Amino acid sequence: MSHRTPSQQAALERSSTLEDQLQAAPREFRVLTGDRPTGPLHIGHYLGTLANRVRLQDLGVEVIVVIADYQVMTDRQASRQLPATVRGIVADYLAAGIDPDRSTIFTHSAVPALNELVLPFLSLVSDAELHRNPTVKAETEATGRPPTGLMLTYPVHQAADVLFCHANLVPVGLDQLPHLETTRLIARRFNERYTGSSPLFPEPDALLTATPMLAGLDGKKMSKSRGNGIALQATEDHTAAMIRRAPTDSERRITYDPIARPAIATLLDLLAAASGADPHQLADEIGDRGAGRLKQVVTEAVNELLRPVRRRRAGLAEDTSYLEGVLDTGNARARRLADRTLATVHDLLGMGYANRSTLPAASPEVDDGEVERQRAGLGSGCAVAAQP
Ligand code: TRP
After folding, report:
1. Angle value at C-alpha 123, between 119 and 127, nearest 5 degrees
2. How confident is the model over 48-105, as pLDDT tens digits?
3. Going by fewer Cβ within 10 Å, which terminus of the chain is more open, N or C?
């Protein structure tokens, strides 16, 4: 494990205190977390975050999950497949154990008031602060292009994700800590500037997950776009084929040495994560039987771990209308929460008049049929913007 900065260390210590509080009083917490819908969720998501979300939900914590669709617009490839990807992610969540009766799943695009919170929040951070964010820097470098305004303000959008529902706990990996700092900063500054003794927003805590980040099969960061992670929806045969193609080295005897033998260590880490055993011991057990045997054992462990999830997922994936219904219900709930928060924010900003105009107007000029036609995308044209 690489060295931790003092702030990472502090967050880890805080997380263990929070774990105690979660056990003692789960209903004091509201969790907000999410994913960008760039592709199907993989084993890294499952081990790193999905299993933890389910654990929190089952403890009795309220869990709200955003599918951050407005944050994949920059990725042309991903946005073309959005409807299927989003539905697939809903299936992944449910298969992993998220219970739609207890937890809420929604998308950015269905909750306008959440997105509107970005505007007042933008006024609370400086240009320099936005440019300093190391995660934004790293992601920008990975694209090889200068950051768009959307990319640069992603942490502010994420603050809106967390604060619209007054979440006080955000389970994250270490790379997301800078974003959470921005959320905390915005909550603090908003409260200082606009509220008196009763703050509107909690300053949410990060809950760091115990599992270290799992590398992809090629040893690089596991990501949906690199295709180096084993998807929850992959078949057992596809899983076996992916593991068979993973790089190894020429030494027969299997040992766990992340520095000298990174390719073998990547496979052993995956095996350790899937089986819950120690990688050194797993290496010893395989010993002279070599990389072929190691791959066989990894394949069995991964397929066994994912079997129940995949079984549930197969039952759900075909049921498009059920998956869409889950999302519709989640979206409606998120809209209610966001509308309420935005109304309060409007009041605090001196824009209370905005709240009056959100009441549906009984205007004789509006032909209801016209509204319906526009909704269906059949209308007279200008109300429905064309896709760029
Ligand atoms: N930034 C997260 C990611 O890239 C996804 C995300 C969007 C998120 N909004 C969030 C995570 C709010 C936690 C809280 O994976």
Report:
1. 115
2. 899 999 999 999 999 999 999 999 887 777 778 999 999 999 999 999 999 999 999 9
3. C
Q: What is the DSSP string of 331-357?
A: HHHHHHHHHHHHHHHHHHTT-HHHHHH
pLDDT, tens digit (0-9, with 9 covering 90-100), for 214-263 = 899 999 988 877 889 999 999 999 999 999 999 999 999 999 999 999 99
The residues lining ligand 1, judged by C-beta closer than 6 Å to any ligand atom, are 32-36, 66, 68, 158, 161-162, 170, 172, 176
Ligand 1 atom index nearest CA of 36:
5
In contact, 370 and 379? CB cutoff 8 Å: yes
Q: Whose CA is nearest to atom 14 of ligand 1?
A: 33
What are 295's two structure tokens?
């791959």
- Which distant-in-sequence residues (6+ apart) come within 8 Å of 14 by Cβ? 205, 206
| Best of 158, 175, 207, 223 for a ligand 1 pocket test (most atoms within 8 Å of beta carbon) | 158
Partnered with residue 172 across adjacent β-strands are: 208
Q: Which atom of ligand 1 is nearest to the CA of 172?
A: 13
Which atom of ligand 1 sits closest to the CA of residue 176? 1
| DSSP string covering 297-313 | HHHHHHHHHHHHHHHHH
Amino acid at 359: L
| Closest protein CA for atom 15 of ligand 1 | 35
Contact 157, 70 (CB under 8 A): yes
Distance CA(255)–CA(265), nearest Å, equals 8
pTM over 0.70: yes
